[in-house]
Each structure stands twice: as structure tokens, then as C-alpha cells.
Amino acid sequence: MKKVITLLIIGLFLSVASCSKEDDSIDNSVAVNPNANKQQTGSSSNDLLSDKKFKSMIIEVVYVAGFEPSSTAISNFVTFLTARTYKPNGINVIKRSIPSPGNSPYTDAEIVSIEDANRTKYNTSDQIAVWAFFADGKSSKDTDTGVILGTAYRNTSFVIFEQTIQGLSDSPFKPSRNVLETTVITHEFGHILGLTNLGTALQSSHEDAEHPKHCNVNTCLMYWSSETGSGIGNMVSGDAAPQLDAQCIADLRANGGK
């Protein structure tokens, strides 16, 4: 049976953008409530899309040493956010490495524990915070016929199984790592933005009935490629990651986005 690459499992980021590394400080003068960043996937979609409450966004990218995402993929991610969200005070990315937790393959509970132990950025009065973890191992949900590349599991949290991505890219007959990373990162964040029908209301009927919370347009970033479909290799066969289709963009705009 042909092996299927699964983009994600869903768990129950115009402005000036900047990027820095090794910033793990917490400003203790600013009151934070970690519980606000521990809610259901898609529940903060309007806060992320609009500037009604949060005027800026900070993305905390944490990776296991040796599994740093490419600068191109992170730049593409910021471009994706800039195109879809209103954050007049900017989108800031901070990156740092941590030692391997040594738990691969990672269960959902272990991914949550890693975030809780290492996350330093939480929402403040006018800045929304996002956590992105790049793991040095695979998901415990991988099977002989399919692997998980990423998971959106909280309202501002997602994990990318970077070791799996590295094994499936940058070699003959495999996609570019930059393109594959960009595809998975933006797909996961699409779910955090409430797509499809996951906190951002549908403006038209385009949710895949067989694969809920995914778009039924097979060229859309939010499409679910089943084991009988063409597979992720065909979706990322070119030099650019898939884009959101017009229906998904209409949903985001109706929920406060661009």
C-alpha cells in the first residue's frame, strides 16, 4: 500500500516583521495569564486575524538543537501572516534551541509538557503570542502507511515533526525542504486561524465531508490528502508552497482578517 504523508492532526500567527535568536526572557513587569494560551484550537482566530484587541504578534520558535527550521520557511511564514492578519505594531519572531527531550516518538501529552516547561511568551494586553516547536523525532501516531508532519493542538500552539520532514525532503524525487516546511507550518497555522470551519465560520460550503476541518479544493493549502489521493508530494512538487484558495480567504476576511 502506498505510504501516505499526513499533514496534521488537529488538537481538542502588513506589518513590520523582525527576527531574533536566543531570546528566552520574560518581562516580569507585564502581567500574563498562561491559561489564555491553553485554549481550544481555532478559538483565538479572530484575535490573531484582527487588530481589535491585539496590535502585534510574537512567535516563539523553539527547536531541538540540529533541527532548526530554515530561515526561508520562517520568512515565508511571516509573509503568510502579513498577508492574512492585521497587526499594525508588527510581527516579531524569536528563535532558540533546547536540548533534546529524548522522548521520540512523541505523544500528544509529551508535546504539551515540552511547551509547558519551555514556553516563555504569553499574551499581554496588546500582543498575542504563538508557540512553535520543531521536534527531533516523529509522532507516536505514525503508522506503516502514514506519518504526521505537524499538529495544531492549542489556540496558539503547534508542533512540527522536523526530523520526519528532513527525512522526506532535499533528496532526489523528494520536495524541497524549504517548500515542505513552509507548507506544513502554514497549514498548521491555518487551523489555528480557524480553518476550515474550526472557529472561523464558513462563508461557502467547502469543508471536506470525509475529512472534517479541511477544505475540499484539492489545490488549497487546507486540503486533506488521503491515502487514496495524490499525496503531499504532488502538492509541493514545485518551488512554492500551496496557497489558500478563494473560499478559505473569504472565511478569514469575514472573521477579521485580510
UniProtKB/TrEMBL annotation:
Keywords: Hydrolase, Metalloprotease, Protease, Signal. This is Membrane metalloprotease. InterPro entries: MetalloPept_cat_dom_sf. GO terms for biological process: proteolysis. Coiled coil: none annotated. GO terms for molecular function: metallopeptidase activity. Residues 1-20 form the signal peptide. It comes from the Bacteria.
